[in-house]
Structure formats: C-alpha cells, structure tokens
C-alpha cells in the first residue's frame, strides 16, 4: 500500500499518479486528506500536506479527484485523515460522499474507539470500511477492543512516534503481529518507517501487507515540479512492490 498526500503537488497530479502506482504494482493506495495540523505525521508528511494546501487542495476537491480517478482505475482507495475536516464537513455526509466518489475505506488518525462509543453522531454504520490503528504500546486488552470495531484490515504502526523513514525495521514486529492475530481474523498491514525494497521484503514475510509513505512523499516534494513527475514516482515505488510480492510468493 502506497501513501500519498492528495493534492501534492496538485490534484491533477494525484489523478495521474494513482493509476500509475497501480500499474507499478501497488495493491492499495492510501490518500492523505490535507490538514493543517497533522499531529501523527513527521516533517516529511507535514510538508506534503502543506504543499497540497498551498496548491489549493480542499476536502471537496479531494472527493472530486477520487471520482475522476475511478474512471481510470479500480485500485482500492483508503482515505487517511483527521477528524476535524470531516466533522466540519459533516461526518455522515462525508462518508456518504466519499463512498459515492469511489473511496473504499477510511483511517481516522485521531478517532479512538472510545470516542465512537461516547459520541452518538460518530457511531453510525457507514459505507466506507473503518480501518483501525494498533501501536507497539497497545496492550492486549485494548487490541481486542480495537479489533472488534475494525473493518477491512488492521493498520499496525511498527514503531512509536510519528511517520518517517527509518534505517531499519523494528525487531518487535513479528511478536506484535502474533499478538494482534489472537484478536482478529482481519489482515494486518504494517507501516511507519518502511522505505526500501529490502525493508519491504522483510516486513512482507511477516505481515499481510506493507505500507510505504514518507519515502514516497519525500520524493514527491523533490520532483513535484518535474514534467516527468508521475513516471519518477512510479519508478521509485516499483522495486518495493516487486520485493513485497516476491516475499509473499
């Protein structure tokens, strides 16, 4: 699964990049909704959101972009977002419009299951699959609680802290995945810090899916003004998809 910020460097570029990523072997695309206070993101993804906002990306624009993407590819699209933009737009309205546009799932970074239980307006069932996060610090009892509300897959954050590239993958991944699998039959995707084909291969031998984000977003910042932007990003991603798929065979 590749993470990109929608609207970086423009929504038109996003519309072209998503099909190119699918052609490069990406199985899912995680589209970040630009937000001015992305507290779970490291500096690379913060800058990606800033570039998108400065280029004029809006929530409405992202949804319209998804509709245009759907005319070109059926690759599953997972929206990565914070609660504030959705709440202002209208929580139910957003889910309805995103599903109608062609999104498949949603990961809300700052909406823990506890809040769903105490806020009636957030607890309804929606067409988008609700992806849930589990962290290295999540105790088993809470894993079970989170897993019960998850749909589609579990996103395991492989290390503490914010998003960003790392020199090596965490040693604890295998043990943590074993614990998570005690509480769910859903696939588990592992992300945060994976940035090379070697790391992708290592994680793919343990997890159901591999998420690469900051490494892609950093290169989007480097090549955003390049007329060959889409090809260069797809070429960067392709070795990681090949390494992932080879490890799963």
Brief rundown of the structure:
This protein has helices at about 10-25, 45-55, 60-70, 85-90, 90-100, 115-120, 140-150, 175-180, 195-205, 215-225, 230-249; strands at about 1-5, 30, 75-80, 105-110, 130, 130-135, 155, 190, 210. The chain is an alpha/beta fold and about 250 residues long.
Index terms:
alpha/beta, four-stranded parallel β-sheet, TIM Barrel
Q: Overall mean pLDDT score?
A: 92
Distance between the termini: 17 Å
Low-confidence stretches: none
Return the domain count: 1
Largest sheet: 5 strands, parallel
For the secondary structure, the number of strands is 9
Helix and strand string, N-terminal first? Answer: EHEHHEHHEHEEHEHEHEHH
Shape: globular
CATH homologous superfamily caption: Aldolase class I
How are the strands ordered across the major sheet?
A: 1-2-3-4-5
Radius of gyration: 17 Å
Quickly give the CATH architecture.
Alpha-Beta Barrel
What structural class do you assign from the helix and strand content?
Answer: alpha/beta
- Helix count, per DSSP? 11
Percent strand equals 5-15%
Quick one: CATH class?
A: Alpha Beta
Helix content: 40-55%
CATH fold annotation: TIM Barrel
């Amino acid at each position: 699964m590749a993470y990109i910020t929608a609207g970086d460097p423009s929504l038109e570029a996003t519309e072209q990049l998503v099909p190119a990523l699918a052609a490069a072997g990406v199985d899912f695309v995680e589209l970040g909704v630009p937000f001015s206070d992305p507290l779970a993101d490291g500096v690379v993804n913060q800058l990606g959101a800033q570039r998108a906002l400065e280029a004029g990306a809006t929530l409405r624009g992202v949804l319209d972009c998804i509709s245009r993407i759907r005319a070109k590819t059926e690759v599953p699209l997972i929206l990565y977002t914070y609660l504030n933009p959705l709440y202002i737009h209208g929580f139910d309205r957003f889910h309805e419009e995103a599903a109608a546009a062609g999104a498949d799932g949603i990961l809300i970074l700052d909406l823990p299951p506890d809040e769903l239980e105490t806020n009636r307006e957030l607890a309804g069932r929606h067409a988008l699959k609700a992806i849930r996060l589990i962290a290295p610090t999540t105790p088993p009892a809470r894993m079970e609680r989170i897993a019960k509300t998850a749909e589609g897959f579990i996103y395991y954050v492989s290390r503490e802290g914010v998003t960003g590239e790392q020199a090596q993958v965490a040693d604890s991944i295998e043990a943590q995945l074993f614990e998570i699998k005690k509480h769910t039959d859903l696939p588990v995707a592992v992300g945060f810090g994976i940035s090379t084909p070697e790391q992708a291969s290592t994680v793919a031998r343990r997890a159901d899916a591999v998420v690469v984000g900051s490494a892609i977003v950093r290169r989007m910042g480097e090549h955003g003004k390049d007329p060959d932007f889409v090809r260069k990003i797809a070429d960067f991603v392709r070795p990681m998809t090949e390494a992932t798929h080879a490890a799963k065979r």
